[in-house]
Amino acid sequence: MSVRNQVIDNLSSLLSGISGVKKVVVSNEPLDLQQYARADLPLIELRVDAENVDYETSQTGYWHLSLICTVYFLATQDDDALRETWNEKVKNKIGSDPTLSEVCEMCEVVSENSEGEFPVYSERFGLVASYERGIANA
Amino acid sequence: MALVFTTKNAVLLGLETALKTISDIAGVDRKAIGVEEYEGDKGCFLADVRELRKTVLKDCIVVTYTAQVVVWVYNEEPDADLSGDLNLLIEEVKSALQNYFTLEGIVYKVIISQVDTDAGFEWPKAYGTFTLDILFLSGV
Fold this sequence. Notes:
The structure holds 2 protein chains of 2 kinds. By secondary structure, chain A is an alpha+beta fold.
């Protein structure tokens, strides 16, 4: 398995351990929420975004894998305290294993946005997982 | 998270309940039979309820009702200030709807999107209309 896929797998497993989360979905394009039911929420979408590499030599590079992690949850109204709770849960979880079981050097939260409208609200996190690997097996 | 799933009937009953809190109001119901059918000097009825449905989850639809509430005042006095009476009633309707913002928890919110204070004026009657957007959840 490539490092890239290991990062995605381990991150998915890590996020599924957040208390209250019912489902984690890995996708390559925006999620169609209409395919999911109320019972599936809170749901985390983990979407693979861009990949960048800083070449160190012709054979090795420092990879930056960008991912978008979105937590969808139900609420009767937009609630700052609830958003804060999800913020804290996601950041604490990623912070508890920033190397994703030593697959990458660091997985960090680089951005966050509050989105959604009644009744499905969401917190979106930009993540970057960085690792150094040979070009051939990155 | 307790989300309330509501039927159209419950919304309309909730709206009626809110409007009936106005003192001495007549004719709060869904039969748009006209002011002449009612007794009293002020009243209102629901007319022209339309709905827009948007699926957000497989089993969850956000429904927006756009409802028109016709309010009327009646005063036989020759020098009656019908427009003043109508404005008072409109303020009472606004206040009733604000107090029942979620129709006692069955809807997400009631938005007054438009108020027409001069929908019809012919002594001894004057009419006004409210356009309301009512948002609530429905199952599939």
